[in-house]
User: Which sequence fits this backbone?
């Protein structure tokens, strides 16, 4: 996991590995107003109105297995009108975290690397006796955001739509070519 720019986690979502019982531990994470404002600024959205996660962490071969659910209410700007667009997010969570001492060594220079795109996500790594899940939760939230939020009924102003075709457009050239073949 990469740390936040100033290495201060935006959320309080750390789990101590050395005191984690075999049965696991339930962890509740809820962002306060300042944390939500910092996350909204970081994700470049209008606001994060609510953010919480219910997690269960279990020890697993020198690391931990974390599962649970993330819930958030966010507001983004409409891609057409820039009006606020609220969105409710609920994401199921699952990730493996391994201690960095368990991390695989860097590949030899020039060696082939096989990436299984259909397989499970690779585990994240942590240092020390604590695994900080803050960056992972923010990553999950950022990936769950609608990439093109649009307010219902928002339409592009016809004054901004180019109705004239560019004569040098490759599509117009193909259309002309097709017309000569017929």
Assistant:
């Amino acid at each position: 996991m990469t740390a936040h720019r100033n290495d201060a986690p935006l959320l309080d979502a750390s789990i101590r590995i050395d005191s984690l019982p075999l049965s696991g531990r339930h962890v509740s994470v809820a962002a306060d107003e300042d944390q939500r404002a910092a996350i909204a600024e970081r994700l470049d959205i209008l606001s994060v109105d609510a953010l919480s996660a219910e997690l269960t962490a279990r020890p697993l071969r020198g690391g931990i297995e974390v599962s649970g659910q993330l819930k958030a209410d966010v507001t983004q700007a409409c891609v057409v009108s820039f009006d606020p667009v609220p969105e409710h997010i609920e994401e199921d969570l699952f990730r493996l975290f391994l201690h960095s001492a368990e991390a695989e060594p860097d590949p030899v220079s020039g060696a082939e690397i096989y990436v299984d795109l259909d397989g499970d996500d690779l585990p994240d790594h942590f240092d020390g006796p604590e695994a900080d899940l803050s960056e992972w939760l923010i990553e999950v939230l950022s990936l769950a955001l609608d990439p093109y939020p649009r307010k219902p009924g928002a339409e592009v102003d016809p004054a901004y739509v180019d109705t004239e075709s560019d004569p040098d457009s490759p599509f117009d050239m193909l259309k002309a070519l097709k017309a000569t073949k017929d």
In short: Residues 1-5 have pLDDT under 50 and may be disordered. The longest strand covers residues 84-99. The beta strands are 14-16, 25-30, 47-60, 63-77, 84-99, 124-126, 130-132.
